[in-house]
Design a protein that fits this description.
Oligomer: single chain
Structural class: mainly alpha
Largest sheet: none
Strand content: under 5%
Number of strands: 0
Shape: globular
């Protein structure tokens, strides 16, 4: 009886947590179907309206939404692929290989995680200007092709998940470093790479400050910068802004659903193998 009550309380808690987590997305969708006047009305309307098509049409009229969408998709995909490669390579090396200064380099890496990213905006802009990359996608992709969090995450995962005995067996079979990395480590690191890929993609997709500073051509604007231009100086059509925000969020929800399923299946497969 006590076990049944605890199970019921657990399910109730999970349901409440699910509702709390989903409600902001539901409320975003509701406001995207309303007019600005209805958004400010009291009591608030908790059901969908009829203005979604009108709001979306105004978004398309005011900004090049699909152009910004493709720009953001290109930058996010390139950044994610580069981060996955370089961070997994560095994390695997830190976890399973010995080299001079390894501990100090790792401590220095962790120290960089404590510095706010805003402190590097001015030096980064100066460097991009000297390279002649201001206004180009290279300034959005190249500086972020590796990060301390990703290296730390992969290092921690690889240290426990990649057996040293398996690497020794690979060396006996004649595998070099990259063969061990690609054929032995990468298949084991798939769950960690799934999470890191989703984390990096979402961060790149939602990045606003750095693209706002570095891009000076409207044809290269990312979604966040393009959507910010919908805010008027004196009056803002919030229904239109929220509709644009909803369109920008939908790809991330789809990505999360896909990656979470892949992540869980990889974890389950790893548990079965072990």
């Amino acid at each position: 009886m006590v076990k049944r009550k605890s199970s019921i309380l657990l399910y109730i808690g999970l349901i409440v947590g699910l509702i709390v987590s989903i409600f902001p997305f539901y409320w975003l969708a509701v406001m995207a179907t309303r007019t600005t006047a209805e958004i400010y009305s009291f009591p608030p309307k908790f059901w969908f309206g009829t203005q979604f098509i009108s709001n979306v049409t105004r978004v398309f009229e005011n900004i090049d939404f699909f152009g910004a969408f493709l720009n953001t998709l290109f930058v996010a995909c390139c950044s994610t692929l580069l981060v996955l490669f370089f961070d997994s390579l560095a994390g695997f090396t830190f976890a399973k290989f010995k080299f001079p200064g390894k501990k100090w380099l790792f401590v220095l890496l962790l120290a960089t995680m404590m510095a706010p990213s805003q402190l590097s905006l001015v030096p980064s802009f100066v460097i991009m200007a000297k390279f002649g990359w201001v206004g180009s996608f290279k300034a959005l992709i190249i500086p972020g092709m590796a990060n301390a969090f990703g290296i730390f995450w992969i290092r921690q995962y690889a240290e426990e998940s990649v057996p040293s005995e398996l690497l020794d067996a690979g060396r006996i079979d004649g595998c070099g470093f990259f063969r061990l990395y690609w054929n032995v480590a990468i298949p084991i690191l798939r769950p960690a790479l799934s999470f890191l890929g989703a984390f990096t993609f979402i961060g790149s997709w939602n990045d606003y400050l750095w693209p706002l500073i570095i891009l000076n051509d409207e044809r290269k604007f990312t979604l966040q910068v393009a959507l910010s231009s919908l805010n008027g100086i004196y009056v803002t059509d919030y229904a239109m802004v929220i509709a644009g925000t909803l369109l920008a969020v939908i790809p991330l929800i789809i990505l999360f659903l896909f990656v979470s399923k892949q992540f869980i299946s990889d974890i389950a497969a790893g548990a079965i193998k072990s």
